[in-house]
Description:
0% of the residues lie in helices and 75% in strands. It is built from no helices and eleven strands. Strands 1, 2, 3, 4, 5, 6, 9, 10 and 11 form a nine-stranded antiparallel beta sheet that branches. Strands 7-8 form a two-stranded antiparallel sheet. A hairpin with a 2-residue loop joins β5 (48-69) and β6 (72-93). It is elongated.
Amino acid sequence: GNVTGCTGKDSRLAFAAGATVWVTQFLAAEGSYQKPSDVTIHGGETSYYFNNSLNANLFTVAGKVAVPLGAVRLYGQAGADYHRATSTTTETIADRTYTDADGVVQTFTGGTQSFVLRTAGWGLLYGGGIEIWTAPKFGIYGEVERAQLKGASRDGDQGQIDDWVMTFRVGVRFLVFGR
Length: 179
């Protein structure tokens, strides 16, 4: 929007867990659950202010194509995500007074209202990363992923969401079976 006093937080730590099955050294399938931190926005001007938060859960499925380089594996991935999200907005409008040309003062009563939009739907995802296997069954990884939050209201309302989430992940990987 164009509110000058608007602030927000959208980059925070989050949680993700999943499993990857490498069919060959070059091809894999992955499923995961991601819980991004809530995105919050606060803003307003003299006569009104608002707060908004977006709480989302992502379930992803992706195919991976890799280039193994000894203990290192570079990979790209593409697939789909299913999201469930809740966007909550609370807006407060202050009382306003108006004086007309005859000097009559009128007061327009403000108030507070809240809107909740619950969405769900499928979107696209793509990204890539690197695995470094520091021991035969233990590795570290870094990954970047861009996932689309796209869906309609779960409650039959008119609202919808069409946005993207960019994630940067680092973590550990364990080889459960195989070589």
